[in-house]
Each structure stands twice: as structure tokens, then as C-alpha cells.
Amino acid sequence: MGVATSGPNEVLVVSGCCRSPPTIKINGGRVIYCDCVHRVQRLNLNIMTINVETHKVYTKLGVAVSVSGVAQVKIPSNNKDMMNTAITQFLGKGQRDIMSIAKETLEGHQRAMLGTLTVEEIFQDRHKFSQAVFDVASTDFVNLGITIVSYVLTDIRDEQGYLRALGQARTAQVHRDAAVGEAECARDSGVKRAQAEQIKAKADLENRTIIAQAERDFLLKKATYDQEVNSKKAVSELAYPLQQAKAKQNIKEETMQVAVVERKRAIDVQEQEISRKEKQLTAEMKKPAEAERFKLETLAEANKQRTILEAAAEAESIKLQGEAQAFAIMAKAHAEAEQMSRKADAWKEYQSAAMVDMVLDSLPRVVAEVAAPVCETKRIVMVSGEGGEVGIHKMTREILDVVTDLPVTVQKMTGVDVSKALTATRA
To answer: With contact defined as beta carbons under 8 Å apart, do 128 and 121 qualify?
Structure first.
């Protein structure tokens, strides 16, 4: 028996008896095993740096270039599926073997991506090339149980001087741009100088305008102050006549106030006199009127009570009459029910004879009902075929035919054959 432990940068795999699937311990785990039936293996989880060199690969336009890239790869510990795949692919292999497989895979994808781009595209946008290689290679690395942490293109070169020619063309372009920039700077300098002189002249004019506005504001304020001084002076000169007029006005207002007070007192005296007369009228006329009203209200209440009592008595009388009528109706109904019961007993005894008797009693009423529409008719037009009867005989025969069919109808409704019953009665 033994105990195996794994460090934080490795995975511990125990296989053998009773270990299907194998036991996996990651990041400092431990497991108990038996030497004779179990096998303990370790798989390194450290990140691996791979230098990817690709020599003389023809680009999209047929230019041979060599490129160098650096990739960081590792076996992920947080993805169970990829961990199982990596154990299946690399368990028992050293880190160099894993790096060799990863390097060959990256070189293949780097070569394939070089054939789809031009030298200019690779040279001007290295990040685009690196991202393309990263995206394409990631799928294959997932199938190996390895993840690509990063990939960077570090160098691009050629032996024909193609990149140098691109650099010279770019250098000439930079020199041209510098000359153009110098000319533009000289032009801009002249423009700026002219703009500065224009701004200076504008500022001078604005300063003169501000001075003129200040002088105008001074004169306006001086005129305002002079106007206020003259107004105060005129007010002081008219102060005595104005005060004298105010004193006369106050005297007049006081006189009017005295008249108003006297008028109010006269009104109060009149109101008191009116109140006294109202009380006198109340004592002389209102009290007798209230006594008369009380008398009338008392009589009205008495009449009301009398009417209520009379109505109650009448209602009680109607109630007793209704009960008497109900008793009479119930007695009559009881008698009729008794009569019907006896008639039913008789029908049970005589059976068909009673039924025939009832039918014969009803026969005249049936004939009358059949002939009723003819009696109500104001005008009858009769049409007959060749050799047919015309006249009242035809109408009478039709009514008799309806009556003759009556026994058949009675038989259908009651189940009693009236003709047969009549024959039996005669016998």
C-alpha cells in the first residue's frame, strides 16, 4: 500500500484494478494505491513555450518569406473533457514530446496561413496574422487536449530583398511626406501670421470700442445723477406747499370721519327701534298663530290615527273574507276531486262502455268545432271536376267524412276501438 500526492502543477492518474475509469487527482490531491494492482502516472500541467520557425514559404503572390512566432500552450486543469483527452493522448510522454507535437501542429497552421496572405498584409498587420493562426490552430489543439494561451508573430524576413524594397519605398514616401509637410508648415506659418495680425487689429478696434462705450456710459450716468439732483431740489422747494395741502386734506378726512360716526349711531338707534317693534309684533301676533298651528297639527294627527285604524280594520275584514273564500274553494275542489275519483272508479268498472259514452257525449262538440271555420266564412267558392258534385252536399259530406274518421283518431290516441265497443254494447 502507498499514498501518492500531486503538486499544484501536475495531475496524478491512478489506473488498474477497480480503477475504471482511472482516478484523476489534480492540484495537490492525494490517493491511496496498491503497488501490485495499481499504476500511478503523472502528467505535467506547466505552461510550455514553443518557438515556431517556418522557412521559405510562398505567400499568396508567390514571394518566399520566413517567419518566426512564439506560442504559449498548456494542458488545462479546469476543463474535465480536455483533461481526459490530454491524458489519453500524452500520458507516459515527456514534456519534450508534447512540445514537439504542438510545435509541428503550429508550424503546419503557420505555413497554411502564409499561403493565404500577401507579404504586405503580413508586414503591415502582424496582429491580424497572429489572430488568424491562433483561431485556426485552437480547434486542433482542443482535439489534442491542449489550449493555446497566446501566439505572437515575432519576425518576418526574406532572402530576395522584397521587404527591404518595401522599406525603401516607405522611406521615400516618408521623405516625400516630410517635404510636403515642411511646405505645408511654411504655408500654415504665413496663414497663422496673417491671422495673428488680423486678430491684433481686431483687438485694437475692440479696445477703442470699449473706451467709447465707457465714455458713453459715464455721460449717461452723469445725466441721470443731474436729473435726480434737480428732482430732489424741486421737491425741497415744493415741500412746504405740499405739507400745507396734506394738513388741509387730513382736516377734511377727520371731518368726514365724524360725520360717518354720527351716521352709524343714527343707524344703530333705528335698528334698535326695529328690533323692539319686531318683538312687539311677535308677542301680539306670532304667539296666537303658533297656538292655532298646534291645534291644527293635533287634529291632523288624530285624523291620521283614525284613518290608520280604519284601514287596519278594513284589511282585517278583507283577510277574513279571503280566508272564507279560500275555504269555500278548497271545499269545492275537494268535492270535484271526490266526483272525479268516483267517475274514475266507474270507468274502471265499465271500461270500454264508459269510454264510448264519453266519446258520444263529446261527438256533437267535435262536429261543431269541425264546422266552426265554415260558419265563420263569409264567401265560399267551390270548384269541381267533371262529373263531381257541386253545392252544399259536397261541403256537408266533407264535414261528415272528418267526423267518420274520428273513431280511428280516438283509437290511435287511447287504444280503444270505438266501433268495436259500440257493437259489443248493442250485443
So the answer is: yes
